[in-house]
Design goal:
The structure is a homotrimer of 344-residue chains. With 344 residues, the first copy, chain A, is α/β, with parallel strands linked by helices. In chain A, 15% of the residues lie in helices and 28% in strands. Chain A is flat, with a radius of gyration of 27 Å. Chains A, B, C: InterPro entries: Hexapep, Hexapep_transf_CS, LpxD, Trimer_LpxA-like_sf, UDP_GlcNAc_AcTrfase_non-rep.
């Protein structure tokens, strides 16, 4: 798997400043790259690494950087160009991935498009419809009445419950669970009575679902994930959540039931969203913040406190518990000083 | 799957105000329900949606709301009534779910009750005992010496380690892991020596365990989950934790080792509990709070800070790190003002 | 499985104060242990339980405690001695664990050492190399080009992506996913373009990976876990993270991309680490703290606030949002008092 710089520069629609016949065979980070590797610089603060980099070629944005490297490909957005190039170096899986493994259990009522690859021990339930060129990894279980759009890839040991709809060109990573019951119970004489979860999960096109992420089915209506949404690992999405197109959810986020998230939002790692909230488009929440109210204005939001040494933090945390007293002290002082100033 | 309103009203022990022969065939949320659907109103703040709802019938609590809807069923607790009705509309699984799939691997020493359903590729280890009417989804692995109570349903790709005991009428969702080793290591010359985890996990009746939730086996004694406990997705329950009957644990909660939680407690999403704590009955902890001390009084508890715009939050967080200085400033001012007042 | 106290005391290199032929057949916690059980005391605050304990023998540190118990084994570090003894009482798995189950799917190009045990439905991909005495649980999927070191044990339903390298004597618990794609996307005209993740995951010797933990493959370079690292359940380790030898990561921790953690660090439950940070050796972070900056000094670090009753917490949290106003009030008071003092 190797390419000439001419091929690379055409692929990224960049301007080649160097040898068009120079061949690169893999990618490398700037400070580690070898002569047979292609690298990139997206953050100017690493510009000092350019002169010492052994990379065979570098994707750059500033013409002035071209002379510092062996070969340069000038592009408007080196990070995006790098993303485009990364696709060229994906190795095709070998082994099981040519067709349908004989150990796969396919229900007779399931339907299968052209070019479908099913790994060993894949289970496809009744009435489930798999579109063309879908790949499903070993041990993955698709229950009944599921629809999978074309070119979607599902890794090993994924579980999809009945009725889930997954769009085209999605990627679902190992251990993800889609369509499990939402957490719904009515109090009943000191115990909990289950509210059976009768909705489903509808996922758009070009969605990525991370490893061991869970997306619950709706209670009555569906849980809905828009097109182009990217979800990292170990994320919990509760019943009836709606996520708008192209929002990105980092690892360990938890979104409680019935909350609606707009388009092009980003939630940082470990963020928590309470239930029944409405978050408008283009909202960004920083890591481990807790959102307990709806957000109507685009922008960046945070909660939490800054890191400190534990002894100092302990004193601050104890003091914070008495902040109301401090406020009362200030009010009293203001009155006293006001009296003194009046007298004066 | 459709029912007359007479049937529905009998099932929920409600009073029908409308046509007893009117037929509903599914459930709908108030603002979306169609004439063939049944809905409910539990929160009075949605009462304004009643007049415009097209629902065929609505479970209501207030007699005055009856005239606003097509047909009404008067009940004391519409949310609980809705939970009861939801059970009527659960579709029976088709496909694999009639009996024991030939690909299931059952150890010759395992025992199996009547009416057991095992999906494709289920694995049942040595000496494991499955009671009557248990259903186990595809790819689920039960190791050795496990006991499963009657009518318990385990979804696909669940892993139960040896020795785990699961009560009757439980539901375990996909990806859940029960009986993995607790996180126990003794420091030994700069490295960690494993404390082998010799206890097990004992789970009561009517427990629900969410998708990708993990419950570790005890170190010496057992980890114990009481009857009627409901656990959401991606929850971590460490070794030797004890959870009292009918407590409910929301998604992404982490409970450290040997903590004891009382009955009828609720832990909000993302809550953390430190180890070796004792939490009394009827304690409620709000989302993402960290509990680092035992709680002896019932009530609601919280930690954390409120959400703000990131720039404003950043200033508050920086200021909080200096709150001790503020307290010192106040003390100094109080002394100075006291002196001034005395002089005055 | 039973041992004389002579055998036990030799195994832990302790001094036996009691009957060398006394037999113990299992372990028990101090207050519950029966005469046929061995217990230990590591925390002096439980010393009052010694006299009433029925344990057949107790691992102790203080000679003065010996007379309080039936038989004593004097050791320097009872907790470590207990860890060593716990190994004696691990039961060998029975059932499937004698050899390679006929339902295991092994690619013809995979290689297998001596004494390898593969449970039912294990899948081993092309060119994957399994060393001697490796045990792999039912339903676990190893993709292509994977290397597993000797005596490593992988539980049921684990997923390893292609190219992952796992050292010797590791333990990987059920549901763990190693080698899934890192969360890398470049913004592209309002959508996200995937950066294909071309690195892998390299894990050292004696590493434990908890249930449902996820470790992503690197984008270009590898994600690296050092020797002796212990990782609890539901931990997220993002692409290109590096963790130094003998660090321990508690449950529900999330570590964002490219962060480097030193040796012998401990991260408490639910801790979050932002990306691209550098944490030096011997850093300890308390539960649920968020680390957003590099840490260059060993020590203990924290963030967050203390638990309070919800009504009191609500007032403190509201006041904290106005802490900048409080600071301004103090500054104003200081000026006014300074003026008054000058006048006076």
């Amino acid at each position: 798997m190797s390419y000439t710089l001419l091929e690379i520069s055409k692929h990224v629609e960049g301007e080649l400043l160097g040898d068009p016949d120079y061949v690169v065979s893999s990618l490398g980070s700037l400070h580690k790259a070898k002569p047979e590797q292609l690298s990139f610089i997206s953050n100017p603060k690493y510009a000092n690494q350019l002169s010492s980099s052994e990379a065979g070629a570098v994707l750059i944005r500033d013409l002035k950087d071209a002379s510092k490297v062996r070969n340069a490909i000038l592009v408007r957005n080196p990070y995006l160009a790098f993303a485009k190039v990364s696709q060229l170096f994906v190795s095709d899986p070998q082994g099981w991935s040519a067709n349908i493994h004989p150990s796969a259990q396919i229900h007779p009522t399931a339907t299968m498009g052209h070019g479908v690859v099913l790994g060993p021990n894949v289970v496809i339930g009744a009435n489930t419809a798999i579109s063309d060129n879908v790949m499903i990894g070993a041990g993955t279980v698709l229950d009944e009445d599921i629809v999978i759009g074309e070119k979607t890839r599902i890794a090993a040991n994924v579980s999809l419950y009945s009725g889930v709809v997954l769009g085209a060109r999605c990627i679902v990573h190992s251990g993800a669970v889609i369509g499990s019951d939402g957490f719904g119970f009515a109090p009943d004489q000191g115990a909990w009575r289950k509210i059976h979860q009768l909705g489903s999960v509808i996922i758009g096109d070009d969605v990525e679902v991370g490893a061991n992420t869970t997306i619950d089915r709706g209670a009555i209506d569906n849980t809905i994930i828009g097109n182009g949404v990217k979800i990292d690992n170990l994320v919990q999405i509760a019943h009836n959540v709606v996520i708008g197109d192209n929002s990105a959810i980092a690892g360990c986020v938890g979104i409680a039931g019935s909350s609606i998230i707009g388009k092009s939002c980003t939630l940082g790692g470990g963020v928590g969203l309470a239930g029944h909230l409405s978050i408008t488009d283009n909202v960004h929440v920083t890591a481990m913040s807790l959102v307990t109210r709806s957000i109507h204005e685009p922008g960046s939001y945070s909660s939490g406190t800054a890191l400190d040494s534990t002894p100092k933090w302990r004193r601050s945390a104890a003091r914070l518990r008495r902040i109301e007293n401090m406020a009362a002290q200030i009010t009293k002082l203001e009155k006293q000083v006001s009296t003194l100033l009046t007298k004066g």
